[in-house]
Amino acid sequence: MEVKSSEGYDALDVALLQWGVNNSDLTYVSLLISTGATITISHKQITKKLKYDNFDLYMKVISKYPELLINI
After folding, report:
1. What integer pLDDT is reported at residue 1 of this predicted model?
2. In this predicted model, what pLDDT tens digit does every residue of 56-68 receive, in sequence order?
3. For the chain, the helix, strand and coil percentages under 3-state DSSP, each to the nearest 5
4. In 3D, which of 61, 36, 37 has the Cα closest to residue 49?
5. Which site from 16, 29, 39, 50 is most exposed, i.e. has the minimal number of CB atoms within 10 Å?
6. Which residue in 40, 29, 38, 35 sits closest to 65, CA to CA?
7. Residue 47 and residue 69 in contact, taking contact as beta carbons nearer than 8 Å
8. Average pLDDT, the chain
9. Which helix (H) or strand (E) holds 45?
10. Which residue from 60, 4, 72 is spatially nearest to 29, judged by alpha carbons?
11. CB 43 within 8 A of CB 12
C-alpha cells in the first residue's frame, strides 16, 4: 500500500531524497523496494535528478536498482 504525505511524497520518495542529500547508505531504499514498494514516475524522476547532481551516487543506485531508470 502506498501512502502519500500531504506534500505528495511517499516513503520511497523521502528515502531517495534523503539518500541523495545525505550520501547515506541505501538501507531504507533497499528495505522499501524489497518489501514491495511500488516504483512510480516520481521515484524515477528523483533518481534521474541524481544523474546531474551526483553522478557517482546515481551510478550506485541504478546499478543496484535498474528499475529506477526512466525508460525512454
Report:
1. 43
2. 888 988 999 999 9
3. 65, 0, 35
4. 61
5. 39
6. 29
7. yes
8. 84
9. helix 41-53
10. 60
11. yes
Cβ contacts of residue 23 below 8 Å, gap of 6+? Answer: 54, 57
- Residue pLDDT, tens place only, 6-47: 468 999 999 998 876 666 678 889 999 999 999 999 999 999
Q: How many residues does the chain have?
A: 72
CB contact at 8 A, 26 and 61: yes
Q: What is the pLDDT of residue 67?
A: 94
- Residues with Cβ within 8 Å of residue 58, at least 6 apart in sequence: 47, 50, 51
How many angstroms separate the CA atoms of 20 and 3, rounded?
A: 21
C-alpha grid cell for residue 17?
Answer: 531524497
Q: Which amino acid is at 24?
A: S
The residue type found at 8 is G
**CA 45: distance to chain centroid?**
8
